[in-house]
Amino acid sequence: LQVPCAPSQPAASGESRRFANKHSKKALKASLTLGILLGMFFVAWLPFFVTNVTQAVCGCVPAGFFDVLTWLGYCNSTMNPIIYPLFMRDFKRAMGKYLPCCRHSGEPRPSAISLSMRNSNSGPHAATSLRNVL
C-alpha cells in the first residue's frame, strides 16, 4: 500500500530559506562587528593591564613606556565612533537623524520639543517602546 504524498509547498520553503539566509547574514555581520570591536579592545588595553600588573609586582616598567600603553588604550576609545558607523547601519541612521553634520539634505530636523517629549516618556507617544522611539 502506498500512502499518497501531500504536495510540497516550494514557495513557502523558498521564503523560509530566504528568511533564514537573511538572518544568518545579519548574525554573521553582527559577530564580525563584535569580533573587530573586541579584538581592537584587547590589542589596545591588554598590554596596558599586563604592564600595570608587572609594575605592581616588580616596579621595573619605565614611566614613558607605561604612558605610551595608556595612550594606546585611549586611542581605542577614539576608534569606537569610527568603527560603529562603518559596520552598523542602525547607528549610522541614528547619527544622521540627530547630528546636523551627518544628515542628508532631504531629512527633517527633529525639534527640541519632540526630542524632550520622547526622552521624558510624556505626551502622545508615552506608551511606545524604546525601539519605536529610536
From TrEMBL:
It is found in: Cell membrane. GO terms for biological process: adenylate cyclase-activating adrenergic receptor signaling pathway; positive regulation of MAPK cascade. The keyword Zinc does not apply. Pfam families: 7tm_1 (PF00001). It is a multi-pass membrane protein. Residues 1-84 form the G-protein coupled receptors family 1 profile domain. GO terms for cellular component: plasma membrane. The keyword Transferase does not apply. This is 5HT6R protein.
